[in-house]
Design goal:
The protein is of the alpha/beta class. It has a single domain (about 30-390), classed as Alkaline Phosphatase, subunit A. Strands 1, 2, 3, 4, 6, 8, 11, 12 and 13 form a nine-stranded mixed beta sheet that branches. A four-stranded antiparallel beta sheet has the order 14-15-16-17, with helices on one face. The chain has a two-stranded parallel sheet with strand order 5-7. Helices cover about 25% and strands about 15% of the residues.
Length: about 500
């Protein structure tokens, strides 16, 4: 069943053409170990051509990257929020292990001795530079970088909110009358391009973090013009979709919040337009990084990994933003290009987690793979994308709220024991909760065996935004935390 009213051409078309690893005549920079170009994108769901999430989305650079390596069609985040997702990826442990469940949880308080992914590369002789949004905003880790280039502020429209929806903070969209050079992501990309154009006498780990398509969706007008409102397609939505969802799931969805406001102010098409415009703007910056690498002496000896921290809802299940355990919030683009290993245009349909990035890069670069890491190296799948793989992905939102996603099924179990079960073979939109079907008890049992055995209490929280308050401890007992809206 297609997710949109207008059918989309399958992303499989993209795998038929290869793409050269380096620019013509480019020579590999000979170093003892491969370099790493680590590209992070914020809030990007599967709305790319190669994943087929939206018909007509323009992502030529992402598609170009997918053509030159291996892309995963079932990659999922460890948590559907920026801070816990990035903490899990960069430290290699689940939220249920760290206690970092939400955006306001300071991760270094919970993991004071953690050796982050960039620190691991620093300890093994790499030159490690980071720019833009890699860790969650306000929680950057100075000890993880030799050099760090912060994200610049973006221009904003003169009159806000552009969409007319009051009291929704960053939940806004509209064009800004500026050129690309005024945008923070462009400046971060400029910095990355400059780095790739320089001589380096030791292997490097270069992390470039793009903020878009994070809210607010303010990008130059030319990107909005790429998506005329008359041609915008809305996601398919079932009005009674939440009727068979347990109370905690409905609390996460908050249908009377963002979704009701979008409908009231007739902003759905414009919101989709803003998200698409922001995706295409970010895609352009990715293309500039790829061009710079291809022109450099490092093209044939640099591993590229591109990931996004979680997905995004645009009305599916009557919800907006992330912060749920459903498919739209969990599924992410993940692409690896490993010279000499990945085959151009390879597609892998196995379920993999962003937790797997840390051990994968360590193994690919000949670094030790620590026993504390809870992911698994994807090198076997990069060698053979069709090989057997029996690991579903765990996504966590709040203490003891988990999703288990296999290739066919999604089991959600909330902190009060209530459940959802979806059959993606017959119900890819997750419209029908099968958790109560007696004949599927064995399916639930097999999936539930993967649930975390330990769910540590949530760590302390700190206020987000300009006026930060003192960190306060979490309650000593929180067996059933109430899901709440978070700062995007």
């Amino acid at each position: 069943m297609p997710r949109f009213a207008a059918s989309s051409i399958a992303a499989a078309l993209i795998v038929t053409a290869g793409f050269p690893i380096g620019a013509p005549g480019a020579q590999a920079k000979k170093t003892a170990k491969p370099n790493v170009l680590f590209i992070a994108v914020d809030d990007l769901n599967d709305w790319t051509t190669f994943l087929g999430g939206y018909p007509g989305v323009k992502t030529p650079s992402l598609d170009r990257l997918a053509r030159r390596g291996t892309f995963f069609t079932r990659a999922y985040c460890a948590a559907p929020a920026c801070n816990p997702s990035r903490t899990s990826l960069l430290c290699g442990v689940r939220p249920s292990t760290s206690g970092v469940y939400h955006n306001p949880n300071p991760w270094r308080v919970q993991l004071p001795d953690a050796v982050t992914l960039p620190q691991h590369f620093m300890a093994h002789g790499y030159q490690v530079w980071g720019g833009g949004k890699i860790f969650h905003g306000g929680m950057n880790d100075p000890q993880s970088w030799h050099v760090y280039f912060p994200q610049a502020r973006d221009p904003v429209p003169k009159l806000r909110p552009v969409n007319g929806i009051p009291n929704t903070a960053q939940f806004d969209w509209g064009p800004v009358e500026v050129g690309d050079q005024s945008m923070g992501d462009t400046q971060v990309t400029d910095w990355g391009v400059k780095f790739l154009g320089q001589e380096h006498d030791r292997p490097f780990f270069l992390a470039v973090g793009l903020f878009r398509p994070h809210l607010p969706w303010y990008v130059p007008k030319k990107y909005f013009d790429e998506y005329p409102l008359a041609e915008v397609t809305l996601p398919k939505v079932k009005e009674d979709d939440l009727d068979d969802v347990p109370p905690i799931g409905r609390q996460m969805a908050r249908p009377q919040g963002d979704h009701a406001k979008v409908l009231k102010y007739q902003q759905w098409e414009k919101a989709v337009q803003g998200y698409l415009a922001s995706i295409t703007y970010a895609d352009g910056q990715i293309g500039r990084l790829l061009d710079a690498l291809d022109k450099s002496p490092y093209a044939e000896n640099t591993i590229i990994v591109l990931w996004t921290d979680h997905g995004w809802h645009l009305g599916e299940k009557l919800h907006w933003r992330k912060f749920t355990l459903w498919e739209e919030a969990g599924r992410v683009p993940l692409v690896f290009v490993v010279p000499g290993l990945t085959k151009p245009g390879s597609r892998c349909d196995r379920t993999v987690s962003l937790l797997d990035i840390y051990p994968t890069l360590a193994e690919l670069c000949g670094l030790p793979v620590g026993e504390q890491l809870e992911g698994k190296s994807l090198k076997p799948l990069l060698e053979d994308p069709a090989r057997p793989w029996d690991r579903p992905v765990i996504t966590t939102h709040g203490r003891s709220n988990h999703s288990v996603r296999s290739e066919r099924w999604r089991l959600i179990r909330y902190s009060d024991g209530t459940e959802e079960l979806y059959d993606h073979e017959n119900d890819p939109l997750e419209w029908t909760n099968l958790a109560g079907e007696a004949k599927l008890a064995e399916v639930k049992k097999e999936l539930a065996a993967w649930l975390p055995k330990v769910n540590v209490p949530e760590g302390p929280r700190q206020a987000e935004g300009p006026a930060k308050k003192k960190t306060r401890p979490a309650p000593a007992k929180s067996p059933r935390p109430k899901p709440t809206a978070e700062t995007p």
